[in-house]
Amino acid sequence: MAGQLGWGIMEESWRKGPWTAEEDKLLIEYVRLHGEGRWKSVARLAGLKRNGKSCRLRWVNYLRPDLKRGQITPYEESLILELHSRWGNRWSTIARSLPGRTDNEIKNYWRTHFKNKPKHVLVTPVKQKLEHLEGNDFNSSNPATARTRTSESATTTSVVTIEPIQHEKDHVVAR
DNA sequence: AAGGGGGCCAACCGCAGCTTC
DNA sequence: CGAAGCTGCGGTTGGCCCCCT
User: Which pLDDT score, from 0 to 100, does residue A139 have?
Assistant: First the structure.
């Protein structure tokens, strides 16, 4: 569609690559004043040489104040496994069940930890929580959460078990 | 001690759905 | 109602860092 042009690719030469502290500051200030959304106008209003898409991504994945950051807990890990077995690669949907975590973060985590691993089997503590979620979000007919992409993997039928998660990956802590 | 490989994370790209006109 | 624009999502890539040999 016109998506690409919609993000303003033709308009001017946007900066790419890692964000600087200065850019972060400008973006934070912009969101503080204008709120989230209207990313298209960020460049103009905030004085950033970034396109809206890049700004949104930076905010959502890194600058949002409610982000948890830090390593994924064993509980979160088991939750990810279970949710992925239900929804497949619908990372944003999974992320909604993990407050403070972003779809990008979960996606990265899953790819490095589970992608090439055999499917396990699930965990109990998580199941209770899931049943709770089931009442709210699972099977939701909310169109916003039920976007239909061509993601076939959502149909995977795996039962997950979780062996006690031993590796806390302490060494990763401060990077 | 140095080099290579793998893990991890941030960011970009392209596509599809939603909204507005 | 249809077209154009905007936003969000998932996939992929590139680079840095740490560990192992």
Answer: 41
Question: What is the domain extent for residue A44?
Answer: 3-63
Write down the residue that tokens 């039928």 correspond to. Answer: A157
Q: How far apart are CA A119 and CA A173, in angstroms?
A: 26
Structurally, how many domains does chain A consist of?
A: 2
Chain B positions under 7 Å from a protein CB? 7-18
**pLDDT single digits (tens) A5-52:** 445 444 457 888 889 888 888 888 888 888 888 888 887 788 888 888
Asked if residue A173 is part of any domain, the answer here is no
Give me A25's structure tokens.
């500051």
For A67-79, the DSSP string reads ---SPPPHHHHHH
Domain assignment present for A175: no
Task: Using the predicted structure, report yes or no on whether residue A121 has a pLDDT greater than 50.
Answer: no
Q: Provide the pLDDT for residue A162.
A: 37
Both A52 and A80 in one domain: the answer is no
Q: Which of residues 18-47 of A touch strand B (CB under 7 A)?
A: 18-19
